[in-house]
Amino acid sequence: MKRFVLFLLICGLGLALAQPKYGGVLRAGMQTDPVGLDPHTSQATATRNMLENTYDTLVMLNENLEIVPDLAESWETSDDGLTWTFHLRQGVSFHNGDPLKASDVAFSLNRIKDPNVASPRAGDFEVISNIEAPDDSTVVLTLDKPFSPLLSKLAFSMNAIVSEAVAMANNNDLNDVVVGTGPFKFVEYIPQTRMVLEKNDAYWAKDADGNQLPYLDGITFTFYPEPTARTTAVQTGNVDWIEYVPAPDVDILRADSNVEVVGGLATNFRSIYINTSVAPLDNTLVREAMSYAIDEQAVVDVALFGTGGVAADGTTIPSTAFYGISSSPYIGRDVEKAKELMAEAGFAEGFEFDMYVTSTYDFLRTPAEIIQSNLADIGIKMNIVAEDWSVYLPKVIAGDFSATILGNSGLADPDDYLYDQFHTGGTGNFGGYSNAELDALLEQGRQVSDPNERKAIYTQAQELILKEAPMIFLFHSAQYEAHGKNVKGFKHYQNTGYLSFRETWLE
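RESULT FIELD:
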């Protein structure tokens, strides 16, 4: 009996010790600087990672990629799917003290749609024909046609709700001012040094036990472009937490008793984006040949130290409900087939081109050498040209490349994987690919609500993409974060977001 009582006392003590504590500033080691501070115009994951806890969205994704309430505590849709009504929380205010109103939500969504703002996600809401705020707590969206991915688009953390008054006071430019409703307030950003956030004492959210969030007093993001520097920083205690654990260091940090590694396969894809207007890459046979020649498994095993999964089948990952491709002709390496296609295309002797990569992210840079070696076997000379992310990304977005290694993350709906990347004029279609048959399929997938019907449509779309090879699919990367044992409550999100900072605390 005494042992049982002692056991209960120990368990009770353990539960007491596990309770979240308030206070402390989380020191976070980041890969690189943000590229712009305006959530509606930036396309950089780095910007998302640092600003998504300063802003809120209408709805949000949890760690299981489920749509849950955020600024909208409830919503309903009409039977025909054309009218969506969102009911806002009461008592929410912006960091400057102004109350959140439905008119701010309407302004934010219209701002994303506004051609003058030039948001890369304007297409997310092009189907919305009208946005009304009949009162301060109600927002009504009217759609031209049904749009299945609507909630997923609204949940993307860069489609943030901003203050209309703040935007107007700054000539509708939010690159120098960050005023949201999120758990942390923006304090300062010093390029190539740090970004500082502090606790929003008036944040509206509470934890499951009714305790006010966030627990942290603030977050200081420090930039460590050199991958091994982040590893060293978390091991030595110079930071509490790091993102993008370098692939070769995952096992090293797992073996460190003072560090915890979290993460795994994420909802992303990494591919060779091909500019289909640049000869000879405009030739489908050449792109097919390259696809056959590249050993995707070697990229995962060597360049990524096994921390990822081959994406030879397409952009969507096997763990998603809409993964429909059972096999791809490019799985495994077929050099002879690649040579035959090169000869058929009129390039039996090969050709030369530049592979443009970023020097900032190792998982986007290191595969290039393996690809270079693979393509040399079929007579293609690939020159590797590398630049910093802040220089690289604007050039890629402008289509100023022949081929590049890039991808996308933060994905939840199959439309996120396919529409922007492959639809004619898509904001992520940096290579200018266009196919009317594929456009029709992707448009159809947006209007169908039945999951099985959507899966069939997206399977057909992916098969067509494989046939045309406007991208060469490489891998789905595993993403890991690492932190000291003093960091508690942090959860890895499959979409690679850091919304978990809202409930992270320091012991």
